[in-house]
Write a structure and sequence with these properties.
about 300 residues, alpha/beta, 8 helices, about 35% helix, about 15% strand
Length: about 300
Amino acid sequence: MVVPQEKPKIFDFECLGGFFTAQPSMKQEPTYALTTHPDLGLIPHTYAKNANSTEDIHLSPWQRFANHVEQLNRNAKNGELYKVLYVGRHGQGFHNVQEAKVGTPAWESHWALLDGDGDAVWADSALTDQGMREAADNGKIWRRLIEQEKMPWPALYCSPMRRCLETARLSFEDLAASQGKPYQPMVKEYLRERMGRHTCDRRSSRSWIQEHYPSYLIEPGFTENDELFEADRRETDEEHIRRTRIAMDDIFENESSCFVSITMHSLASRIVMRVIGQEPFRMSPGSTTVFLVKASRS
């Protein structure tokens, strides 16, 4: 692994409650998997300081929330900022199907180490037909909220794995065109799934990504070949948390938008939750959840 062993953190993160519907604890409901709420779980509020004020009652809940986030940033103390993170999981991939077919113990010990079984290939796994439908359905929710509820258009970030690149395309590309927005998700290496051993988590080359997703932006320093994957060792929890924190620091430090969408993975999404101070929970394939995060410079 070439992930930095030590790098001073830039921010301390805090996930703020009371804005989105509470999600289940993995400890209490380990088999539960979140599906996308029709309004992405936003709890309607009026945010006017004066209880008699009616200045925002004609706005949609998402418009009122966006104004509130803008106000939080305008009034933030020196070194503090607030961002809304939309965390999306890719749709079903061929690796998900194979693990469900053979069971997790057999997957971990044997099948995950192979590129495929002769019928399906799961190295840098593509989406299944069901996974493509899940990604497209996610896009329908986004379209309704953007067009009807005036939810802010986010900056788009994406894991470099094939299943995430395709999920983002199916979710956002047509919507971006209809909104007159450039469709240029930023591909970030450290947003990928836990690395090592599993061939589904060995990414394709930079050239392959550029050829198949030419509108995507690729962050500086992104290597041609996957230099992070090790066939004989799986990344540890601590290593995964460390590189995710580096990715979050970079996004909060350099992304100007207060609204950020990240298309990523099941375990990777739970690591993001740990980094921002949210108790982790499972997400279903193709689902999206949202967090309001306060960042304070360390």
